[in-house]
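Hey, can you fold this?
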Amino acid sequence: MKNDSCPHENLVATAARTGKWEESLIAHANECVVCREVKEVAVWMGSLAGQFENEPVPHEKLVWLRSLIREEQARQDRALRPLAVAQGILVLGATAWLAVPQTQSIGVLLTAFSPT
């Protein structure tokens, strides 16, 4: 991995963030590959941050309450998982039992599961 750096990186990042550029820094950022990438990333990050500037931040109690609700829902899902597995096995067994004609079902089950 390359460890490319430039002593002007911080200046370029600050200028890109604030929009206050000096002529010499603009010229350097256009010539230096590292600083050009820093400038592009800083401008992109600034535009990304600007998209969420007017978004209202939810109240911390609401965020906490939502996390508690999600935690409780996850706990209930984990507790009910064995019942869902048992229900699936029961449905599978009932389907298999209904698939075999009723007159032969007991005989087939007895011969299928009897030790030989």
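Oh, and this one too while you're at it.
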Amino acid sequence: MRQTLFYPGEGGYWVVECPSLPGCVSQGKTKEEAVENIKDAIEGYIAALVQDGFPVPPENFEALQLCASIEPRLNEIECDPGFRRMMDRSAADFRAGRTVSHAEVRRRYPKSARGK
């Protein structure tokens, strides 16, 4: 038995993937169709691994559904002047076609502006 994740895709389709089998993704017009399609995809994925002599990855995916509202924290972050400066600078870099390394982000912005 494999765990799967469903989420809405483009054009009203449902996308479904199997995290324990990297790249095993399918879709369907309905959730029911997506379930049937991912079953076929999982069977084919595992059959191809076995046929080619590769090990079948174990099921190792765990999920935790969080039911907490993050709206108050998002409002607090978005109103922070340091956060606004960081986002404005990032948008300007993006529009200018500049890429910025993780190290450069850390240098430019103190921890407080990154929400830590």
